[in-house]
Amino acid sequence: MSRLERDLIKTVTESATATVPDAAASLVRSRDWSSSLFSGVRLTVEIKADEDEAFETWLADLAEAELGVRGYFVASADLVERSSGVAVVEFLLVEEN
Q1: Contacts of 27 (CB under 8 A, 6+ apart)
Q2: Hey, what domains does the chain have and what are their CATH numbers?
Q3: Which of 31, 41, 32, 49 is nearest to 87 (CA)?
Q4: For the whole model, what pTM was predicted?
Q5: Where are the alpha helices (DSSP H) in the chain?
Q6: Which of 1, 15, 59, 79 sees the fewest Cβ atoms within 10 Å?
């Protein structure tokens, strides 16, 4: 696992556990991403937590959350799959210049 992947997993876990103490995040996949002006990485993360209102609130607020990852800007956090106690989120991290 790369430093970037570890940093994102750590940041997501810390953010989630601040609201849902038993939450845990793990990497599903990582792939490079680029546009004509920017480059970065798309990281898909599975987040597990007790199914409750706090987890739902945290997920709803995730797109607007300030997630710090060294050397990157978290451009988006999109919920791509949801089942009981599990959420799969795709993060787009863009390199800071």
Answers
A1: 1, 5, 8, 9, 43, 44, 45, 46
A2: 3-95 (3.30.2000.30)
A3: 49
A4: 0.92
A5: 3-19, 53-61
A6: 1
